[in-house]
Specification:
The complex is a heterodimer of chains A (205) and B (269).
Chain A lengths: L1 H35 L18 H27 L3 H27 L18 E3 L3 H9 L2 H29 L3 H26 L1
Helix pairs in contact in A: 2-3, 2-4, 2-5, 5-6
Chain B lengths: L5 H17 L7 E5 L3 H6 L17 E3 L25 E3 L2 E8 L1 E3 L1 E8 L2 E11 L5 E6 L5 E11 L4 E11 L31 H11 L11 E2 L5 E2 L4 E4 L2 E5 L3 E2 L14 E3 L1
Parallel strand pairs in B: 3-10, 11-13
Antiparallel strand pairs in B: 1-4, 2-10, 4-8, 6-7, 6-9, 9-10, 12-15, 13-14, 14-16
C-alpha cells in the first residue's frame, strides 16, 4: 500500500522533474553554444545567458535597456532629419542592431525573474551631482531643432549617449558575474567606442 | 511609455561613490567635440597612442583654476605634450565650440582662454546645461596657430573640465561653420597618425572609411569581412567560413562582424 503510493508519486513527479532538468540543461548549454555556432541561432532573441547572475548584471541590463530605448528615439529622429547619408546610415544601423539587443536583454531579465524597466528612485542622484546626458528634454529638442543645426546637435547628443553606454559596460566588465552578459558588455564597449570614432569624424568633416 | 530615468541617476550615484573610493575613472562629464579638442582627436583615433584618454575624452576633470590642457590631472599628461604635433583646425575670425556632455552638471561658467588670457566667458548662473551646448567665440584679435583652452567650471563641485583646442585662426570668411572645416592643417597630415597605431589597428580602418564616404573600397562579393568598410544592402561577405548578406548598409566597426549578435545587419546564407 505504502509502496504503491511512493511509486505513484514518483510517476506523477517525473514529468516535472524532466521538465525542470530539461530547462536547466538547455540554459547551460545554450550560452557557450551561442558564441560558437553561428548557424544555429537565427534570431538574436535565441541567445541565452544562463541562470547565474549578480546585481550588477541586472543593473547593467536595466540601465542599458533604458539607454537604448532612448537611443531608438534619437536614431529614429536622425534617420528622418539628418542631411548627410552617412549620418542617416549610422542612425539606421544603430536602430536595427540595438532593437535586437533590447529584445535579447529583456529576455535575459525575464528569465532571471527581474523587471526590464527601472524603478523610479529620484532621491539618490544627488550623490553624483550630475544628470546623465539624455532626458526627454534633450530628445524633444532634437525634434524641434532647425535643420541647419540638426546634425551637429544630434551627433553631440548621441556621442554623450553612447559614452554613457560605454560607462555602463565598464561597470559590468568590472563587477558583473554572468559570463554572457560580460561578453555582451565587451561588445557594447567596442561598438559604441567605434561609433564614437565615426561620429567625431562626421563632426569634423 | 513610462519614464524610468530616475533609476539610472540613482545607480550612477551609487556607482560614482564606489568608484570614487576605488579611484577608478570618474564617470561622465564632457569635452569639446568640434573643432576637435585634443582628447576628441585621441578618441577619434586621429591622433594615436594617447593612452586612457582615448576611451574617456569626457574625463579631463581637475580642480578649478588650472591653465594646463590636462587641468593638472596626472592621468592625462599626454594632452600637455606639444611634441605630439596636434593637428589644428582652420577657423575664421570666430569659432563655434561644440560640447559633448555625458553628465549635465549645474554650471558656473564656460571660459575660453588664448595665450593665458580669458577671451570669452559664458555665465550659466548655476543652471543645468541645455540640450546642446555651443559657444561662438570672437578670435579676431589673433591669427595663425593658437591653442584655445576651453574650461567648463562646474557649479556644484570644486572641479572643472579642461580642453585644449588647436586652431589655425584667420582662414577665409568672418564666420565659422558649426562643423569644423575638413581642410584642417593639411601640412600636419593628421591622417598619417593612425597608421602608426599598433595598439588599435581597427582605428585606422574605421578612420579611412569614415573619411571616405564615397566608397573607395567597393568589396567584391564574397570577400572576407573587415572593419572600416562601407557595406551596402545586398553585399555578400564571408566570415569564419560562413557567407552573409548585408541587410542594412553601414560602415563596419568592431563587434559588428557577421554572427549571431548582428543578425540585424547580416543574414547568414
Amino acid at each position: 500500500m505504502k509502496a504503491r503510493h511512493v511509486a505513484a508519486l514518483v510517476v506523477a513527479a517525473a514529468p516535472f522533474l524532466l521538465g525542470a532538468c530539461g530547462t536547466a540543461v538547455d540554459k547551460k548549454e545554450a550560452a557557450p553554444a551561442a558564441t560558437t555556432q553561428a548557424q544555429n541561432v537565427k534570431n538574436v532573441s535565441e541567445i541565452t545567458a544562463g541562470s547565474t547572475f549578480n546585481d550588477t548584471d541586472v543593473m547593467f541590463l536595466q540601465m542599458l535597456i533604458d539607454n537604448q530605448q532612448q537611443g531608438q528615439q534619437m536614431a529614429q529622429i536622425a534617420a528622418k532629419r539628418a542631411g548627410r547619408p552617412e549620418v542617416v546610415e549610422l542612425a539606421k544601423a544603430v536602430q536595427v542592431t540595438q532593437a535586437d539587443e533590447i529584445k535579447m536583454m529583456t529576455n535575459w531579465l525575464t528569465e532571471w525573474g527581474k523587471p526590464a524597466t527601472l524603478d523610479e528612485r529620484t532621491s539618490l542622484h544627488a550623490d553624483h551631482g550630475g544628470l546623465p546626458a539624455t532626458s526627454e528634454k534633450e530628445i524633444a529638442a532634437l525634434k524641434t531643432m532647425k535643420k541647419a543645426q540638426f546634425e551637429t546637435a544630434f551627433l553631440n547628443l548621441f556621442l554623450g549617449h553612447q559614452h554613457n553606454a560605454v560607462e555602463f559596460a565598464q561597470l559590468e566588465l568590472s563587477k558583473g558575474g554572468n559570463e554572457q552578459a560580460k561578453a555582451f558588455a565587451e561588445r557594447v564597449k567596442q561598438s559604441r567606442s567605434d561609433q564614437v570614432q565615426q561620429m567625431l569624424k562626421l563632426l569634423a568633416g | 511609455m513610462r519614464r524610468k530615468i530616475a533609476y539610472p541617476l540613482a545607480t550612477l550615484g551609487m556607482v560614482a561613490s564606489t568608484l570614487a573610493v576605488a579611484s577608478s575613472p570618474a564617470l561622465a562629464h564632457g569635452y569639446v567635440s568640434s573643432p576637435p579638442s585634443r582628447q576628441a582627436l585621441c578618441a577619434a583615433g586621429t591622433v594615436a597612442n594617447c593612452g586612457a584618454i582615448q576611451f574617456e575624452p569626457q574625463s579631463v576633470e581637475a580642480p578649478k583654476g588650472s591653465k594646463q590642457c590636462n587641468g593638472g590631472n596626472a592621468n592625462f599628461t599626454v594632452l600637455n605634450d606639444e611634441s605630439r604635433n596636434w593637428p589644428a583646425t582652420t577657423v575664421g575670425k570666430s569659432a563655434t565650440f561644440n560640447w559633448v556632455l555625458t553628465a549635465r552638471h549645474r554650471t558656473a561658467t564656460w571660459v575660453y582662454y588664448v595665450d593665458g588670457a580669458a577671451v570669452a566667458t559664458f555665465n550659466d548662473n548655476n543652471a543645468i546645461p541645455s540640450a546642446t551646448v555651443s559657444h561662438t567665440v570672437d578670435l579676431s584679435r589673433f591669427s595663425g596657430r593658437k591653442t584655445v583652452l576651453a574650461v567648463w567650471n562646474i557649479g556644484d563641485t570644486v572641479n572643472a573640465f579642461y580642453n585644449c583646442v588647436d586652431v589655425n585662426i584667420g582662414g577665409s570668411g568672418s564666420t565659422t561653420p558649426t562643423t569644423a572645416p575638413t581642410t584642417a592643417a593639411p601640412t600636419t597630415a593628421p591622417t598619417t597618425a593612425p597608421t602608426t597605431a599598433p595598439t588599435k589597428p581597427t582605428a585606422t580602418a574605421t578612420a579611412t572609411a569614415t573619411t571616405a564616404p564615397t566608397r573607395t573600397t567597393a568589396p567584391a562579393n564574397g570577400t572576407a569581412w573587415a572593419p572600416g568598410v562601407s557595406y551596402r544592402t545586398g553585399d555578400v561577405v564571408s566570415y569564419e567560413g560562413v557567407s552573409y548578406q548585408c541587410r542594412q548598409g553601414h560602415t563596419s566597426i568592431r563587434s559588428w562582424e557577421p554572427g549571431i549578435w548582428t543578425l540585424a545587419l547580416w543574414l547568414p546564407l
